[in-house]
Design brief:
Layout (H helix, E strand, L loop, with lengths): L10 E5 L4 H12 L3 E6 L4 H8 L5 E5 L8 H12 L4 E4 L14 H29 L3 E6 L12 H21 L4 E8 L8 H5 L1 H10 L12 H8 L10 E4 L7
Parallel strand pairs: 1-2, 1-4, 2-3, 4-5, 5-6, 6-7
Helix pairs in contact: 1-8, 3-4, 4-5
């Protein structure tokens, strides 16, 4: 592998790595040489098997990411296991759908807590460790097309992903000079559990596909290359970027 993209000897945390985008990113980082700690409420057996088959080390951490106070403990567990932390990928996210007139407070809070609040406190906990380690690190947040657009019937999701875009830029401003790169990947429409309702809606599915120049929904694996890039030395001068991986959706 080109040394610019080589992650050998590095340790990554990936939240929500049991399926979908998180799983694909965790596997891509491991293929590039990283050891991976996967964080979530569900045991990531399939992800673990794939990563261990490459000869990489793997740690599963059970945590409820709706509770932001878990952030510090997650980082401590990883450092106790590996002795270091080089990469954080904040992928875990949830979505609730209802019209803005009917959207309830519980669905607002649930989404904001996982998608934005805990993301911030994981960034904070990881950065403290990266500063203490003295070698800096890479933080990658998973944004969305709704970091740029409004969408419909997903008020808290849109607010959270717009917040991720702003948070990424703020943290880049504060930490770029201290050796930490903070960037985001904004996936387009990806075939995952979160989008099953959209894909099942014949009318909406047709509308979405009609706008994507690539002519297909993304696969989770389509996000892996961008993640490896942002986690690697190739991205050392990339700060505060929100990189769309969208099949051309925003260019339409």
């Amino acid at each position: 592998m080109n040394s610019l993209f080589d992650l050998s000897g590095r340790t990554a945390i990936v939240t929500g790595a049991n399926t979908g985008i998180g799983q694909a990113i965790a596997i891509a980082l491991a293929e590039a040489g990283a050891d991976v700690a996967a964080v979530g409420r569900t045991t990531p057996d399939e992800t673990e098997a794939a990563i261990k088959a490459m000869g990489r080390r793997f740690l599963s951490i059970h945590a409820d990411l709706a509770v932001s106070s878990t952030a510090g403990d997650i980082v401590r567990q990883v450092v106790d296991w590996s002795g270091r932390l080089d990469i954080l990928v904040n992928n875990a996210g949830i979505i609730r759908r209802a019209s803005a007139l009917d959207f309830n407070e519980a669905d607002w809070d649930d989404v904001m807590n996982v998608n934005l609040k805990t993301t911030f406190f994981l960034c904070q906990a990881a950065a403290k460790q990266m500063f203490a380690g003295g070698s800096g690190g890479k933080i990658i947040n998973i944004a969305s097309m709704l970091s740029f657009q409004g969408g419909i019937r997903v008020a808290s999701y849109t607010a959270s992903k717009s917040g991720i875009a702003g948070l990424t830029k703020l943290l880049a401003n504060e930490w770029a000079g201290k050796g930490i790169n903070v960037n985001s990947i904004a996936p387009g429409y990806v075939a995952t559990n979160n989008t099953s309702a959209l894909r099942a809606d014949e009318s909406r599915n047709k509308e979405i596909l009609g706008r994507i120049p690539a002519g297909r929904w993304a696969k989770p694996q389509d996000m892996g290359g961008a993640a490896v890039f942002l986690a690697s030395s190739a991205a050392d001068y990339v700060h505060g970027a929100i990189i769309p991986v969208d099949g051309g959706w925003l260019a339409r």
